[in-house]
What does this fold into?
Amino acid sequence: MQKRENILLRFTNCVLIGFMGSGKSTIARELHKQSGALLLDSDLLIAFSQNLSIPMIFEQYGEKYFRDLEEKFCTNIAKNVQNSIIATGGGMPIFCDVKSMGRVFFLHLEFEDILARLDAKELENRPLFKNKESAFMLYKERLEAYQKSADYTINGNQSVAVITQEILGLL
Ligand code: S3P
It folds into this structure.
């Protein structure tokens, strides 16, 4: 049987950033499957730590509280985690030093392409995606921060398999 190359020792953390709906969690899961590297998803871990969904955290405690949790997640990863895949929430590059966590891959898509991917259920889980107009404003405001934080910009409008291979090739 063909052995998988052990890429665990080849890279520092692989950090995925991008706007809501750009596919960070999906790509992170595929990278995890293909590489065997540990996967840490900030939204999942934050929700788990609070025993609340992300919309409930926003509703009960407000955005500032959520951003403080993201900041803690980021600091903790930077200090204590290596050789792992890190999926971030869409706001992390604005509020945290994502570069401190590792090598940063920005999944870039046009806003229209993001919109086409998100169904009503997915919008419900995203308190900052209130409507198309305000989300587009946020997208435009954030683009520069994503680009500045990125070591690599990846065309997110490709298949999961292609994006995953591209990132694995860059690690
Ligand atoms: C946010 C994006 C969400 C989540 C929270 C805030 C943002 O994650 O962290 O709702 O500020 O863009 P996704 O990017 O996975 O949707």
